[in-house]
Design brief:
alpha/beta
Length: 186
């Protein structure tokens, strides 16, 4: 009797608010490493949301569908949303790995601390992928700042997918980004 094949399932978690080309770089490379890769969209309670959870999920699903069409045969990848702790979500989907992208040395210190904590409290390992150097200083927070402060949205096409640029333009026309700027009283 043959032994059951071990499925290597990983989650790549984040707020993806908005999804960047750096995120897609990690997804494209990570999906080749695991049998299953779940892009796990969660909430960061420390940040104001730019896009709703539903909008983020739709954008990521569309981009992943495009990715699959361009590269058939790579590992299975799907998108899910979750609430709460990432390790709890990982356990709920039987993932044994948390995939994380590392952009620069600042990320490394923070991500190592998280990885050690996740291993200690949840027995879940973390695998790091260093993003392409073209995305080493790209972050969703930076994109939200550029949008909120009136930056040129078309210039973001070097760091976010075109569907994000278009969604930002629609959002700006409909309601603007003022809600992203916190009121600071001195």
């Amino acid at each position: 009797m043959a032994a059951a094949k071990t499925i290597h399932r990983a989650i790549y978690s984040g707020s993806f608010d908005p999804v960047t080309l750096g995120h897609l770089d990690v997804i494209a490379r990570g999906r080749r490493m695991f049998d299953d890769l779940i892009v796990a969209i969660g909430r960061n309670i420390a940040k104001r949301e730019l896009f709703s959870m539903k909008q983020r999920r739709q954008m990521v699903e569309r981009l992943i569908a495009d990715m699959k069409n361009g590269e058939p045969g790579a590992g299975n990848v799907r998108v899910e949303t979750y609430q709460g702790l990432t390790v709890d979500f990982a356990r709920s989907v039987d993932a044994t790995i948390i995939l994380r992208g590392i952009r620069n040395i600042s990320d490394l210190a923070y991500e190592c601390q998280l990885a050690m904590t996740n291993r200690q409290v949840a027995n879940i390992e973390t695998v790091f992928i260093v993003t392409d150097q073209a995305f080493s200083y790209t972050s969703s927070s930076l994109i939200r700042q550029i949008a909120a402060l009136g930056g040129d949205l078309d210039s973001l096409s070097a760091i976010v997918p075109q569907i994000v640029v278009e969604a930002l333009k629609e959002m700006k026309a409909a309601r603007g980004f003022e809600y992203l700027i916190e009121d600071h009283v001195e």
